[in-house]
Amino acid sequence: MSECAVQRDSCCREPAELKIVAFLCNWCSYAGADKAGGSALPVPPELSVVRVMCSGRVEPTLVLETLRQGADGVMVLACHPGDCHYKEGNFRALCRAELLERLVVQLGVDPVRFCFDYVSAAEGEKFSRITCEFAARLRQLPPIG
Amino acid sequence: MATDKPKLAMYWAAACGGCEISLANMHEAILELDRDFDFVFCPCFLDTKKKDLEAMPDGSIRLTLFNGSLRTEENLEMARLLRKKSQLLVAFGSCAVSGGVPALANQRSRDELLSRVYLEAPGTVNPDRLFPRVLSQVPEGELTLPEFLDRIPSLKDAVPVEYLMPGCPPEPERILAVLRLVASGEALPDPGTVLGCSATRAVCDECTREKRDQAAPALVRSSEALPEPGWCLVEQGVPCLGMATKGGCGALCPAVQMPCSGCYGPLDPDGDAGGAGIAALSGAVAAPVDHGAGEAQLVARSRATVAAVADPLGTFYRYTLSDCLIGERDQEVVK
Ligand code: SF4
Ligand code: SF4
Ligand code: SF4
Ligand code: FES
């Protein structure tokens, strides 16, 4: 059985209560998500995917607004460093993530709620693993508000 | 003294006085103010009292410039009173527009703030643990103080306002332009409009420092930077927020070697100063281009380019924490 299902057994919140928004870059992470789907790997059902052309497209304000509107967690998944279709979009995204991670803590938000990571088109397994782990971590937190 | 001139009021809530100084900095144009308006209420410049204000009919003041933040119950009470008496209420200056510097205290609870100031601050000696109280009994009778609010809201979130005029403080020429507009009797902009600044141009547009289209190797701390005069600050790694900030000041700070700290607020009217500032600075640093380096190395190097922003909240929300998109949530992280 998948790691995801195992973790859900021990969780304290029902999947339906959780809202996760994942911004996936079109060229790598979205394809990685497709691969996970095609390989029938587990993906948390509460994951809402937003496809963007590049992780560098995700304005930090969008992440804050997503949290404000009640998402329990936000993921930004990018091509691996050096692999961005637009060369440096994922470095922009990384710098934003670095500052956002530190900012949300100052704003009183558990930094666990924000996740920046890399998923290539071939990494269906990694996509499945990190999304399930992220959902499991969020389920341990009280609802955002 | 009865006059037909439109009435003008200016009030300071939890303010530093800089907004009034900026009005006084109109220099001789202050005579225009006197010619065109009946200046009926302004505790800083005039010997006018709250009871004078209370005695005025509702809606009798044409224009009120309300500056300072809402820190106490008294500030709120004055905001409500001036709202009632005024036709046009302007949130004047960053403090009234979006909390300003005082709203940085919204990071802490009321109790934390009071115990810090009255018990823990270096130099404080308070063995009897005396705190200000709303009501104190003394032999002479009852003494009262206004209640200290839990958090500082922006003025527009406390009472309806017609206009917002950002800046810490708003520039004298911009104040004069607004006074002239109101005095002229011409059609006014739609309520909710932000006055005295540019709706579409950032501070960078007004800045004369040379843009060389170069990315900074890494950000540096402003206090440690010795930027080359005349060259764009952010290109030299100084965290200047000109790109993310509404123009209108004429790029005053960069003109004197200081990075813009964002006092006119985010350029995007629906934007968030934190999001805008992070986007601006993250776009200003060079990406590591060495494809030979390993992923961990590239990530570490890239993260290091923005490490000099040691206090993201204080850097990006210096004037705007009351308007922060996620500023009102319960604190999840134990500080
Ligand atoms: S906006 Fe600036 S100048 Fe005006 S009261 Fe606030 S701190 Fe002072
Ligand atoms: S970043 Fe700062 S110094 Fe550079 S052009 Fe903009 S306002 Fe001027
Ligand atoms: S440069 Fe920035 S901080 Fe300085 S006055 Fe203008 S808007 Fe305010
Ligand atoms: S295209 Fe995938 S991160 Fe830029």
From TrEMBL, chain A:
Residues 20-141 form the F420-non-reducing hydrogenase iron-sulfur subunit D domain. One of its GO terms (molecular function) is iron-sulfur cluster binding. It holds the Pfam family FlpD. Keywords: Iron, Iron-sulfur, Metal-binding, Oxidoreductase. The lineage of its organism: Bacteria, Pseudomonadati, Thermodesulfobacteriota, Desulfuromonadia, Geobacterales. It comes from Geomonas limicola. InterPro entries: MvhD/FlpD (IPR003813). This is Methyl viologen-reducing hydrogenase subunit delta FlpD-like protein.
From TrEMBL, chain B:
Pfam families: Oxidored_q6 (PF01058). One of its GO terms (molecular function) is iron-sulfur cluster binding. It comes from the Bacteria. InterPro entries: Hydrogenase_assoc-protein (IPR051349), NADH_UbQ_OxRdtase-like_20kDa (IPR006137), NiFe_Hase_small_N_sf (IPR037024). It is found in: Periplasm. GO terms for cellular component: periplasmic space. Gene3D superfamilies: NADH:ubiquinone oxidoreductase-like, 20kDa subunit. The keyword Oxidoreductase applies. Keywords: Oxidoreductase, Periplasm. Coiled coil: none annotated. Residues 16-180 form the NADH:ubiquinone oxidoreductase-like 20kDa subunit domain. Its main location: periplasm. The keyword Oxidoreductase applies. PANTHER family: COENZYME F420-REDUCING HYDROGENASE, GAMMA SUBUNIT, F420-NON-REDUCING HYDROGENASE VHU SUBUNIT G. This is F420-non-reducing hydrogenase subunit G. The lineage of its organism: Bacteria, Pseudomonadati, Thermodesulfobacteriota, Desulfuromonadia, Geobacterales.
